[in-house]
Amino acid sequence: MSLTWSAKDHKNMNQPPATGQKRSRTDTGNKVTVVLGAQWGDEGKGKVVDLLATEADVVCRCQGGNNAGHTVVVDGKEYDFHLLPSGIINSKSTSLIGNGVVIHLPGLFEEGDKNEKKGLKGWEKRLIVSDRAHLVFDFHQVVDGLQETERQAQEGKNIGTTKKGIGPAYSSKASRTGLRVCDLLGDFKDFSMRFKNLVRQYQSMYPALTVDVEDQLKKLKEYGERLRPMVRDGVYYMYEALHGSPKKILVEGANAALLDIDFGTYPFVTSSNCTVGGACTGLGIPPLNIGDVFGVSKAYTTRVGIGSFPTEQLNAVGELLQTRGHEVGVTTGRKRRCGWLDLVIVRYAHMINGFTGIALTKLDILDVLDEIKVGVAYKINGKRIPHFPANMDVLHKVEVEYETFPGWKSDTSAARKWNDLPSKAQNYIHFIENHIGVPIKWIGVGKSRECMIQMF
Ligand code: GDP
Ligand code: IMO
Ligand code: MG
Fold it and tell me: Could you confirm whether 70 is annotated as catalytic?
């Protein structure tokens, strides 16, 4: 047998397990549409997903946890989703929480119950949870807080995490001591033993950590029973969705490219891959099934928490963007830092994700400005650099080169078509589109579902 791989040697490779039918590389099944944040989060992903979800059969979360906060405004009612995919609002679609997500069970049920009170009916029947997803325990959240205090004491700065236990839970996963949904629903004696070991491990690192183990286990058992009807083998569920009848499958990214554990502004990042690879690993989707990848970017930039932000405006412009844009964190209630649109970061996000379209949100927030700036390049010692710096000391020192545009000084919130926009706003959008090199598919001019101009 030849040592080089060939399809002939592995003729069973493409056969689906259920039907035994042969598949070629061109018959890969349904394509998945992915929506991803192209900045530091809160770009309006929830709104874009909601728009697409009205026609979707399955809407999936692939990474992150309840550090995310996605807002959807429908018929004047505002919903905020943290762990639930924003598509849960569509009573005709199924929502899937994939293996790459870390789930805090009390948070999940609290979120569902809160939204039920707002009128979200039957969500538990529409939700599927992967048995491979890892669990975030209450003590992970406590440890998140302790680590932040420690960072502040040791280095004089913390990360500004959401304290939802994301870093500690993904650390447990990577160090192979984490516990998954399938463990909770399996032999509870074994689960309890592993839970106690995990608690002991963290207590040896953080002696101040107190955990009422028996109380936690009792609650987890109850949560597990409430969760049980929703749990499936996520990989097989996705396989069937991809290869069964034609289906519209949507993946809702959480967090964003510049918060990605590999590509973001490390260490001021989250602990998962928020770029396109996370859709494959967090759901078990083969890369060939990835179809459109839509990047979401505000018409300016915001960031929550600590870390470099080259186009940040610590002045009246930043304050205006913050107040007009109601830039307050959905999860933590913290004020978001604001600045001009930074096309260096959006282009960098495109290098990694290969966007096929962009949703440019919150254009309406710029309506009152006399002039609008856009960051187009970074310079070090007066020389343009072609890449996005990995080192935060370098990023901190870059000088931003700006293009300046005249403001349109008129209300765009009622615009529903391209021609409704003032020509100065059209010029601004055209410049962005040309600079990123990706067509702009949607332009957001308000919070609600209908406040979106669709270009094609
Ligand atoms: P996500 O985390 O990316 O889903 O975004 P968030 O929900 O955290 O933050 C986006 C905020 O902007 C929410 O309050 C949205 O309701 C709001 N929003 C989204 N698109 C637009 C828009 O085009 N115009 C205005 N004015 N608000 C928008
Ligand atoms: P959505 O999905 C904005 C930021 C936190 C912090 C850093 C690490 O709503 O866009 P973590 O709790 O994840 O360990 O915090 O990442 N962060 C976000 N900022 N939007 C988000 O999600 C975020 N998720 C995490 O503020 O700086
Ligand atoms: Mg958000």
Answer: yes
Domain count within the chain: 3
Catalytic residue list contains 260: no
Give the separation between CA 263 and CA 259, rounded to whole angstroms.
Answer: 7
- The predicted-structure confidence for 90-120, as pLDDT tens digits, reads as follows 999 999 999 999 999 999 999 999 999 999 9
Q: What is the DSSP letter of 101?
A: B
Which of 70, 304, 328, 392 is the pocket-test mutation for ligand 2 (most atoms within 8 Å of CB)? 304
- Whether the pLDDT of residue 276 is over 70: the answer is yes
Is 205 in the same domain as 307?
A: no
Instruction: Give the binding-site residues of ligand 2, using a 6 Å CB cut-off.
Output: 37, 41-42, 67-70, 159-162, 164, 166-167, 254-256, 259, 268, 270-271, 304-305
List 405's β-bridge partners, or say none: 372
Same domain, 254 and 127: yes
CA distance 152 to 135: 27
Q: What are phi and psi of 346, to 5 degrees?
A: -70, -40
- The answer to whether residue 10 is domain-embedded is no
Residue 95 lies in a domain: yes
**Domain stop point among 189, 212, 228:** 228
d(CA 250, CA 61): 9
Residue 3 in any domain: the answer is no
What's the 377 CA to ligand 1 centre distance in angstroms?
A: 26
CATH number at residue 110: 3.40.440.10
The yes-or-no verdict on residue 26 having pLDDT over 90 is: no
Q: Across the strands, what pairs with 338? A: 302
420 and 391 share one domain: yes
- Domain residues for 394? 297-454
Q: What percent of the chain has pLDDT over 70?
A: 94
Q: In Å, what is the CA distance from 109 to each residue of 65, 186, 263, 302, 312? A: 13, 20, 32, 30, 37
CATH of the domain at 166: 1.10.300.10
**DSSP annotation string for 64-75:** B-TT--EEEEET
Instruction: Judge whether 22 lies within some domain.
Output: no
pLDDT of 163 strictly over 70: yes
CA dist., res. 420 & res. 84, Å (int): 35
Residues 6+ apart with CB under 8 A from 123: 84, 88, 95, 112, 115, 116
Atom of ligand 1 lying closest to residue 452 CA: 23
- Of the ligands numbered here, which is closest to the C-alpha atom of 308? 2
Among 203, 228, 253, give the residue marking a domain's end: 228
